[in-house]
User: What shape does this take?
Amino acid sequence: MSGARFSADWLQQREPFDTAARDEAARHLQLAARLHAMAPPAGTPWRVIDLGCGTGANQRWLAPRLGGPQQWLVVDHDAALLHGWPSSASGPGFEVASVCRQLDLARHLDTLPWHAAHLVTASALLDLVSADWLQRLVSHAVAARAAMLFTLNVDGHHEWDPADPLDSTVDRLFAQHQRRDKGFGPALGAAAVPALRRALQGSGYRVFSAASDWRIHSLESAHAGALQHALIDGIAHAACEQEPAALAALEAWRQRRHAQAASGRLRVGHVDLLALG
Ligand SMILES: C[S@@+](CC[C@H](N)C(=O)[O-])C[C@H]1O[C@@H](n2cnc3c(N)ncnc32)[C@H](O)[C@@H]1O
Assistant: This one.
């Protein structure tokens, strides 16, 4: 498998923060009401394609909100993440049947059954992809007149409290690192949502968006503290890879951040986007 890898532990660690962020965005998007208005006729299941599905966080959040019978095609290139996906799931008011497909989306996007989809969705994927690939994805979904829901797209904003003099340098290097090729060509990083809006122009789709920021307050829970420590290490590592000559300054930033993390706050900016044909 080539391209970006994400551990199941990391996906599990971020899921509660994703859930809180998505709940807030969904209220602003009036997501439940708008999806209900698009629902397939009674007796017809929702047919959903989930791109870069990981271990299923997107389905766990979305399926109860879609409601009713649902057929999901869930796609990822990482067999380890797909291993153990349940073929069915249910809860109050919804019932899901899932088919897993291990596929490199960078190379085989065109092979998916677009014509059958009512809804195309992905969470935390679009920062990895290129503008060309995103345009192809949108073209397939628009040709099928499928709804699109793309959640947890980074917008490049990190708000640290307390602030540190090196924050803006670290943010700049991290943003540059996010633009590296993740297997799809030059990655969009924080430019994914503006590129998505451009790709949707002229499609006749109505586009709605809302902030889905992570709000990580270490004093609120041990999970928040652990996520903040993991992000500090991940951001510092990427920044060092981007500018090895700045290693000493970046290591000092990392240590200051860890020392403050027990009571620190961090907001990581994201945007959720819903497009309806
Ligand atoms: C940040 S994770 C998000 C996972 C999941 N959607 C979630 O919200 O927890 C990005 C996902 O995209 C998948 N991915 C990355 N590159 C891929 C590719 N070329 N083809 C298919 N899946 C890919 C990764 O394996 C990973 O599961």
Q: What stands out?
A: The chain is about 40% helix and 25% strand. The pocket of S-adenosylmethionine is lined by residues 3-4, 6, 11, 52-54, 57-58, 76-78, 81, 104-106, 123-125, 128, 183 (CB under 6 Å). The first strand starts at residue 46 and ends at 51. The longest helix spans residues 8-29.
